[in-house]
Each structure stands twice: as structure tokens, then as C-alpha cells.
Amino acid sequence: MNSEDISKIKELLSVPQKIVIIPHKNPDGDAIGSTLGLWHYLKNNGQDATVISPNDAPKFLKWMPGSADILNFEAENSQAKKAITEATLIFTLDFNHLGRVGQMHSFLEEATATFIMIDHHQEPSDYALVTYSDVTMSSTCEMVYNFIAYLDDTSKITPEIANCLYTGIMTDTGSFKFSSTTSKTHKIVAELIDKGAENTRIHNLVYDTNSPSRLHLLGCALKNMVILEEFNTAYITLSQDELDTYKYQKGDTEGFVNYGLTLNGIRFAVIFIENKEEGIIKISFRSEGDFSVNEFARAYFHGGGHNNAAGGKSDLSLKETADYFVNLLPKHLKELTK
Length: 338
Hints:
Layout: H1 3-12, E1 18-22, H2 29-44, E2 48-53, E3 71-72, H3 77-86, E4 89-93, H4 105-110, E5 114-119, E6 130-133, H5 140-150, H6 159-172, H7 183-194, H8 199-207, H9 212-223, E7 226-228, E8 233-238, H10 240-245, E9 268-275, E10 280-287, H11 293-300, E11 304-305, E12 309-314, H12 318-328, H13 333-337
Parallel strand pairs: 1-2, 1-4, 2-3, 4-5, 5-6, 8-9
Antiparallel strand pairs: 7-8, 9-10, 10-12, 11-12
Helix pairs in contact: 2-5, 2-6, 5-6, 6-7, 6-8
């Protein structure tokens, strides 16, 4: 953020505000970690703040301090609408287009509050008074730490804030292995540990609380994996019937797409997941090196994200979507095999 933006925020927060903090639909560790981290900070500074999530978060994030206070727009609709209507200040975190909040979209467009965006995805929309956007950042949680630092308030980071921000940085960096992890990221993580982040406990709570059904679903996903060596690509399909057979719960497929990249020589990994309730195929893309899955997702699958991690969707059937994807690969042969 520049000095002008910092001054605007300091002025806004110098008086009592009714604040709403919003993550994207189907929130992940970075979305929940950043919103709760900011929520704790604002509450501790005397602000009236509420986190409203478009829908529920995965079970493996429910331990996070403040999670029980999140309003679920789907389940607590009237209360959430009232909070948005009455808000004087709205923070949108870990997304940069209002279309990423599902059925909350129209309510945010009609809101009279001042908007502040904190996000690290590409091509931000222009809806906020202050837009803190930086695609080089590992995570929105790292940006929330910086946001607090810009306000000269890192001394106010409590163990609750530290645990939330550490979780988002850990999950969005693939446990610190993605190329977006910088020396500054590690310095911030060290600072968060010093301020009370329980790094070992957080890792266990996020990654080591699997149900038997989730591991069986993972086995099904790996069995379905198709390896296309000529394109250095691997993809996974999961049908609605398979999800139902293994008692799918929200968040159960988190990280499945990354298994393709563990194969020697694979640079491009994809997972296609059927969602009959929404009538779409949800897609996650991952890559290594300079092959941009953000550009690929934007060009062909109504999506986007980062250079090495992106999402998309398809209105075709599961088989038609996979066939369409495979037929696209020859266009990118040079990029995938150079």
C-alpha cells in the first residue's frame, strides 16, 4: 500500500465503524485465516466487526479462534443481510471480483459501505476505495500481516491473530514449498511463531485429522488419475456418485490436485469434480515452472487465479469436460514440454 492508502485507512479506523469482513465462496485456509486474523485485530481495537462467509468452511478449519462467530450467509441469511446493510466499512479478503461470493453478489453491489480490498490474485476489479493488491504475495494472510504493520500495530498481534495468519500462509504456500514463498514470508512466519502461533499443532489440525472416508476418496481419486506423458500432464476426475459413495464432506478434496505434480516429469495437474447440485464441473489447476494456469483457466474454463494455481468451471458433463481439456493440450505442447 502507498502512503495515501495508509492514511485513508488510518482515518477510517480512527472512528467507530460497523465493519463486515468477507472471504470468497467455498473459503479455504487463507480466506478464513485472513478474515479471522483481521477480525481479531479490529475487535481488539474497539471496532464492531463481523465476518460473513458466503457458505460454510471445511471442518478442518473449524478449530480456528473465532470460527464459531462467523456468520454463514446461506444458513444465517437474514442476520447476514442486516449486517451488510448496516455496515459502514466492508473488507473483502482473498478475492478481487464480487462474483466470487455467490449469492451475496447482489447484496454487496447494493451496499452503501466503503470497501477495502486485500488480495493477491491477478486482475483486480475496481470497486474499493482502497485496493491492496499484490500478486507476488504468498497469501492474503501475509498481506494482512503487512496491513497491520503499515498501521504500526504489529505489537498488537495476539496468539489468536498469529494462529489465524500462520494457518493461511501455511495452506496457501503448500506448507512453504510453492515458489511464492519468499524469505520475507519466512520472516513473517517466524514473527508469528514468536507471537504465539502454534505451528506444529496447526499443521496437525489441518492435515492430520482425516476421516477414513476421506482417505478412501483419495484412493478413488488416485485410481482415476490419467497420466499424459506426452504433455507432462496428469488429471483426476471425481463423479458425484463417487463423492456420494465415500460420504464427501466440504474440504475433503482439498489438496488432491497436487498429487499429480508429485509424479516425475509432470508439470501440469488438474482435477475435475462433478457438482450436480450446482450443475457444473469444478476444476482446480496446478503447474510447475512458467506454464500459467491462470491464463489457461481464463481462456477456456471461466476461471483464473495465480500463475501456478487457479480454478475454473465447466457446464459440460464430466466426460465432455475431460475430453475438451485433453483436446486443448496439443495447442500448448511447446509450453508444457520445453
